[in-house]
What does this fold into?
Amino acid sequence: MATITAPAPAAARGGDRRPLAGVGALARFALRRDRIRIPAWIAGLTLGSVVNLVSFEDLYPTEADREAVAETMNTPAGLAMTGPAEYLRDYTAGAMMGHQLLGFTALLAALMSVLMVVRHTRAEEESGRAELVRATVVGRHAHMAAALGVVIVTNLVLAVVLAGALAGTGGTGVTATGSLLYGLAHAAVGIVFAGIAAVTVQITEHSRGASGMGLAAIAVAYALRAAGDIGEGGLSWLSPIGWAQATRVYVDDRWWPLLVAAAAAAALVTAGVLLSTRRDVGAGLRRPRQGRGYASVALGHPIGLAVRLHRGLLIGFAAALALLGTMYGSILSEVEDMLAGVEMLEEALAEMGGASIVESFVSMVMVVLAVIASVYVVLAALRPRAEESDGRAEPVLATAVSRARWLAGHVVVGMLGGVVVLAAGGLGLGLAGALALRDSAVLTDAMGAALAYAPALWLTGGLAVALFGLAPRLATLTWVVPVYGFVVSYLGGLLQFPEWMNNLSPFGHVPDLPAEELSVLPLLLLTAIAAGLALLGLTAFRQRDLQTDH
Amino acid sequence: MPGPTNAETQPAVSVHELDKTFGQTRALDKLTMTVHTGEVHGFLGPNGAGKSTTIRVLLGLLKADAGRVSVLGGDPWRDAVALHRRLAYVPGDVSLWPNLTGGEAIDLFARLRGGFDRRRRDELCERFDLDPGKKGRTYSKGNRQKVAIIAALASDVELLVLDEPTAGLDPLMESVFAEHIREAKAAGTTVLLSSHTLAQVEALCDRISIIRQGRIVESGTLDELRHLTRTTVTAETARPASGVDALPGVHDLVVTNGKVQFDVDGEHLDTVIGHLHGLGIRSLVSQPPTLEQLFMRHYGEDLAAAGNGGS
It folds into this structure.
């Protein structure tokens, strides 16, 4: 009798077969891990949108101003960089948001979603932590469900915050309903890309690979909508970003494209879940590739090692800057028409000493390109710190490589790499601009303007090296430089910052070529300070203990 | 190159009253040890006792706060690069670059050290059963360890500094490793082998240093250490074994139906056996202490303290 009534072992009881067991606890854990990241993303995207809305209102106060802009936007290059032409019919500040900004911020929401899904699924598996967790009472799909749940909720919160902030700020054509649709369009893109990430994390064993495929999908989606908006619009319907722009928010307020996104997201998540049942924990659907068994000749020298370690990032940044430069360069001929007659800009140009619109546009674009290039330099200059704390520097420094040679290898590659990235941006801008304006001088102007920023990049890198030598745990503070540089240079003109704030940024001391004259002295000073900082870091590093985290 | 005239007299590694503190923590406290040229020296101690810190000072990766340190006749902090040409290091926890293959990492380490024997490297890959074509991120801990071991063994060096090199290796690979250490010793290489696998140290090492809380508490050959410590004696005597507990150096005496068992300090062994002889020895078993007992003698009180603290 007793054998019949004895309780079944826990595993056989229905409750613990649930594939989602433990999802609540995992979701709370994910929220706790991301308690800084999630608010930072939402705040950043909302703030950026509000600032843009305010600036549209300021720049184009009258209907005539707005119509003029709409007219200049109606070119292939203009539409490729913004959105479909339907927005131009009634070009209010709201329509400008939907046309010019929505595609860009939705792309950032997609980026946020991909990174979050990968972080809470594949990265956990790769580190081996998921194995520990899965060995407890946690269902097969709980990790994925928790990650997707957190990302979907984050996107919906973003939608509501964004809608509230924009409706609160107000502007021509910015309605409450439209703002809600504007927010939800971001959420739709974010959630579809969360679904795409749910598939990519099944494919490779590595979180970097999964993120990379997700980012590639974002790039493809952006390219498809750009191509679609230039042409008949058919290609835009293959892109989630295209669906968001198809809402014609603040113009027609169409809600149904959101349903397309919802259906696609559901299909992608289903595919991800089905694929996950066809692989083991920790494994990917695609087998890892075999690499070379012997090192090349170059990999026998600290410089060779540094080149190898920096290569991927360098190529990525150089390609991105070349592309961005080309995009800006290709609209140079339209810029002239677009900006002529905008009062605020003309005043600003007069202050700058009578440079042409094209020249001043090139200088403005160049600041942006230089700040992005400085992000590369910071990443590269902080590489020695990562090598040290992760324990990869130790075995290298236990060979016949001195600390000075090891660090110098990274510094040289990082600093020269920064110049390569700048030159790629300048080349893209110059070539595309020269073709658009049929004026070869644009190429030399753009290259000169780009390379003038090299000393500012070196100073940024030098600061990282100095911190690395003197206070390695504070080396990440170097990020303050590009962030500050971006805020001051990009928003400074708009928000009317005082001059001393500009002087604090290394980018503020670079002459705004080609709009200004070349002055060599500040460039020499920046270079000297950079060299001094790098030397200081090198000397300090030779005097201190190696600090490994394990 | 100076001639090998003073190689006999000059130790490969000599450390005198070395201090090292990290913030509030005193990692090394007047640590003194010597590794003779040509010997395999076991460096024993649990995690956190200061083994890796000592080794990092010997490699010039950490700077000594006080004390004298000499490696192959040089100052490891000042002459790091010159010394590193003559030694090879295997860290306890090997981190590799995720996008470099194991083979590339081996070649890189060996070349940065100043050249290596390509044929020997291939042989070692085969013996250790390592696929050198896989990317660093795909290797298990054991395979990452193998990469560092192969890079070290493929180089022609005077001193091998090995920090728990076999953690993560399976028993088969451990025996391949032991074989290569014996080979290196036969070729005249000095080996400093930090480990907490006592059996491995017992099998491979000529001399041993035991570290505890940043100090060397015992150092010498296994025989010397045994002599310094207690022998376990089990005896059956014709007359009841009375008075044994009163003898000097006797510990943990147990008497069970005519049998006595006790531990005796090495220096009193003769007196105690003399006393037993007077009682008429019927059987006598004397066991030298195992390395584990030696080790536990130094750490036993830590364990006891931990146990008491818990209850």
